[in-house]
Design goal:
By secondary structure, the chain is an alpha+beta fold. It has five domains: about 190 residues, Rossmann fold (3-Layer(aba) Sandwich), CATH 3.40.50; about 130 residues, ABC transporter ATPase like fold, CATH 1.20.1580; about 120 residues, Ribulose 1,5 Bisphosphate Carboxylase/Oxygenase (2-Layer Sandwich); about 90 residues, no CATH class; about 60 residues, no CATH class. It contains 22 helices and 25 strands. The longest helix is centred in the last third of the chain and has 23 residues. The radius of gyration is 35 Å and the shape is flat. The relative contact order is 0.13.
């Protein structure tokens, strides 16, 4: 290693005498703006060097640079056991841990994609009435003027505003209108002077349509006329509480205008950023308050074995001498319901019929059954039974999508925000890229679409195309969280920083590792130093510089046994080199143990699994492999592990499958 005097801190980071944990007073020279891999056997001191020394000192220096007022909230950070680190840049650690335990945090919010989508729908979203399907618009003064301009030249118009009146105090109302400067009314289509109506002692009848005449004119292409017209229209909207009308005096045709956001007798909320936020009361579902789940009757507890039919006692709550009467009553009254069909094969409409019935409170549906239990909560046996079937379930109002129903009425090219956040990312990207927009909307949304698509591309590059934006962060694995953090960092376009990652390739298929390497190189090419604690051969081969800590683990490690590129590593005398070159290898057993007993998993359908049957051999070392997102963890965690926990009485939530059979 070169003497300290020859070190260029603009191009290199120099770690002097690091002696934390297993590290044995080592000096390390790290080139800047390169992809560096720190490797070595487990426990040799890789993380101690990368995270506990380099990153910790970077964080300490950052905190020390803040004001004394800010530091009091952050606490004091201990200096790592190292004499000095020269050339250190701001450091960012991306470790294998779940980003957040907050149930409101999702993939969309943590990557900032959802923030841009909220802006996108607020800016160019169009609201459509659920009644007629027509677009909801509100009229402005300019819209009224444009309508007038579109008419034939010299067409005469009558501008009116609807008048609210009190029959008993009508004469007083007329006096107020006269004092305000108005002289005419339109009564059932006929124009009359206010003074004439007073002199005749006119009294309106109930239901009579009376409008206040604001102006009468023929269109002129003159600036002063247009100013007068705009003032008249503004006054008409004001006097009509948001409504006004134009009547063609010659033909009698009438055109109504409203500056309220309404259609089909419904008043709609105008889209804004908060309207699409489930973390804001303005946009959150009123039932679940934006969580997507509520405490209620859990379908998985009521129907634990979905391979059974109603006739075969699929409904666990309808067992026993007393409660089975509900099952008999349902079978008797159910119209065209397939009582011998397995529950998982029922259509959505058939399931709704089982749960909701025909809408009458006397029908023996599941909802009415549990309503009966709630009515009898004063009896302890009913309280106990009800508690057996309660759990966190999807919100019945928003069905887990967290937003109020009105957000589904706002669409861009036929798609609403709720349908978008439920799509896998590898399907969402082409949808966003191919949106058909007007020239105006393209210009408005240009920057937003760029931010959304680039972040989606980064997520796909790190092998997360199977996730949805609505996936909660606390359900992600440590590897998925790390890759999301990595993609977010790439999307933020920070430069001149040191990124430190902890085995980002763990759990990745070879196909996805190649994409990951591309992301790491992109991060480097932005002008960052990327330090990766890694064992994967493909990542090591792609690295610009490799640091090998060893020679072994614990007190036998902690030494710098190699520093250089991949070609030089192959000729080095280290354990890493020996396994990479084949001088040492893990021997493949000549004979395989033959399994005699199996766990039989039938009809696994949770998440990405497509109704598969799997036999897992017992008393064997079993490996489940496949590309990221293929369903490996779902099969083992959500189905097999949860079923074992349920059978042992340890809790656990039943996944979507027919059965798990043990020998």
């Amino acid at each position: 290693m070169a003497p300290i005097t020859e070190i260029d801190i603009k191009k290199q980071v120099f770690v002097k005498n690091a002696h934390l944990n297993n590290l044995k007073h080592i000096d390390v020279l790290i080139p800047k703006n390169k992809l560096i891999v720190i490797t070595g056997v487990s426990g040799s001191g890789k993380s101690s060097l990368a995270f506990d020394t380099i990153y910790a000192e970077g964080q300490r220096r950052y905190v020390e640079s803040l004001s004394s007022y800010a530091r009091q909230f952050l606490g004091k950070l201990e200096k790592p056991k190292v004499d000095d680190i020269k050339g250190l840049a701001p450091s960012i650690a991306i470790q294998q841990k779940v980003i957040s335990s907050n149930p409101r945090s999702t993939v969309g919010t943590s990557t900032e994609i959802y923030d841009y989508m909220k802006l996108l729908f607020a800016r160019i979203g169009r609201t459509f009435s659920p009644v007629s399907g027509e677009e909801v618009k509100k009229d402005s003064v300019s819209d009224v003027i444009d309508f007038i301009k579109s008419a034939k030249k010299d067409t005469s118009f009558l501008l009116t505003a609807p008048l609210e009146y009190d029959i008993e105090n009508f004469i007083e109302n007329l006096n107020i209108l006269k004092l305000a400067g108005f002289t005419r009314l339109e009564v059932n289509g006929n124009v009359a002077g206010i003074e004439d109506l007073e002199s005749f002692g006119f009294t309106p009848e109930k239901g009579m349509i009376i409008n206040l005449v604001i102006d009468r004119f023929s269109y002129e292409d003159d600036e002063s006329f247009l100013q007068r017209l705009a003032d008249s229209i503004q006054m008409a909207f004001y006097e009509g509480r948001g409504y006004c009308s134009l009547k063609n005096i010659e033909t009698g045709d009438k055109k109504d205008f409203s500056n309220k956001f309404e259609l089909d007798g419904l008043e709609f909320l105008e889209p804004n950023v908060h309207f699409f936020s489930f973390n804001n009361p303005y946009g959150a579902c009123p039932t679940c308050e934006g969580y997507g789940k509520v405490i209620g009757i859990d379908e998985d507890l009521v129907i634990p074995n979905k391979a059974l039919s109603v006739f075969e006692d699929a409904v666990a709550s309808w067992k026993g001498e007393t409660m089975s009467e509900w099952k008999k009553d349902f079978i008797k009254k159910a119209k065209d319901f397939p009582i011998h069909k397995p529950y998982h094969q029922l259509t959505k409409e058939q399931k709704n019929y089982l749960w909701k019935g025909d809408g009458k409170s006397t029908f023996p549906s599941l909802n009415n059954f549990f309503a009966m239990l709630e009515e009898n909560l004063y009896k302890i046996q009913y309280r106990v039974m009800l508690s057996r079937y309660r759990g966190k379930t999807l919100c019945p109002t928003c069905e887990g999508l967290r937003l109020r129903e009105e957000t589904t009425w706002v669409k861009i090219d036929g798609h609403n925000i709720q349908s978008m956040i439920e799509l896998p990312l590898d399907e969402l990207l082409p949808m966003i890229s191919n949106l058909k927009l007007s020239d105006h909307d393209k210009e408005v949304a240009k920057r937003l679409l760029y931010e959304i698509t680039t972040r989606l591309e980064f997520l796909l590059k790190v092998g997360l195309g199977y996730l949805t934006l609505n996936r909660t962060s606390n359900t992600l694995s440590g590897g998925e969280s790390q890759r999301i953090n990595l993609a977010t960092s790439l999307g933020s376009s920070l430069v001149g920083s040191i990124y430190i990652l902890d085995e980002p390739s763990i759990g990745l298929h070879s196909r996805d590792t190649e994409n990951l390497i591309g992301v790491l190189k992109n991060l480097r090419d932005l002008g960052n130093t990327v330090i990766v604690v890694e064992h994967d051969e493909d990542v090591m081969r792609a690295a610009d510089y490799i640091i090998d800590i060893g020679p072994e683990a614990g007190y036998l490690g902690g030494e710098l046994v190699f520093a250089g590129d991949y070609k030089e590593l192959k000729n080095a005398d280290t354990l890493t080199s020996k396994y990479l070159t084949g001088r040492l290898e893990i021997k493949v057993p000549e004979k395989r143990r033959k399994a005699k007993e199996f766990i039989h998993i039938k009809g696994a359908r949770s998440n990405n699994l497509k109704n598969i049957d799997v036999d897992v051999p017992l008393e064997s070392l079993v490996v489940i492999s496949g590309v990221s997102g293929s369903g490996k963890s779902t099969l083992m965690k959500e189905i097999l592990t949860n079923d074992i926990q349920i059978q042992l009485g340890m809790g656990g939530k039943k996944g979507d499958y027919d059965s798990v059979e043990f020998p």
